[in-house]
Specification:
Elements lengths: L4 E2 L8 E2 L6 E2 L2 E2 L6 H23 L19 H6 L8 H8 L4 H7 L1 H22 L4 H7 L2 H26 L1
Antiparallel strand pairs: 1-2, 3-4
Length: 172
């Protein structure tokens, strides 16, 4: 018998040993309706919802970036020191435009912001359904290929940033 199976006695059928898949810090995230799963769904609902509400309360900056300063945050240090935007420059402005359905303004602020906004907005109904149907978090994210979405978002973010920097560099 291999190490991944166990038997309870003579004549019993070997069953797979627990793999730990779908658990975090010892809590089961793949079990239907577990309290930890519901807590994770609540976090996945409240975070994006807070971002969307915040975006609705902000006035998009006419400069295409800097809207975050309305929250008491300092200007982008990368932009201040290098003169070039960071990958996140314009995201808050883009979100503030998108929550108002101003796609052109959002695109000018940061084209990646449109895609990120749509993913953020999609998480609200997804997490709501996850809570109501008591769906397992890990299994649901696996079915949605969340890891591939995260990688694609990262690649697009870097690509948009490189285009913004190159455009500014060659325009100067």
């Amino acid at each position: 018998m291999d190490e991944t199976a166990r038997a309870d006695g003579p004549g019993s059928v070997a069953s797979p040993a627990p793999t730990g898949r779908g658990s975090a810090f010892g809590a089961d995230l793949s079990g239907r309706g577990s309290w930890v799963s519901i807590a994770v769904w609540l976090v996945l609902l409240s975070g994006p919802l807070a971002v969307l509400i915040t975006a609705a309360l902000l006035t998009p900056s006419g400069e295409g970036h800097g809207t975050h300063t309305q929250l008491g945050l300092p200007p982008c240090g990368f932009l201040v020191y290098t003169g070039y935007p960071c990958p996140g420059c314009g995201l808050t402005t883009s979100f503030a435009h998108m929550i108002r359905f101003e796609v052109i303004g959002a695109f000018h602020a940061n084209p990646f912001g449109i895609l990120l906004f749509l993913c953020t907005a999609a998480m609200v109904p997804l997490a709501s359904v996850g809570i109501l149907r008591r769906m397992p978090v890990i299994d649901t994210l696996d079915r949605l290929h969340a890891e591939k979405i995260a990688i694609a978002l990262s690649v697009v973010s870097i690509g948009v940033w490189l285009v913004k920097v190159a455009t500014q560099y060659f325009a100067a």
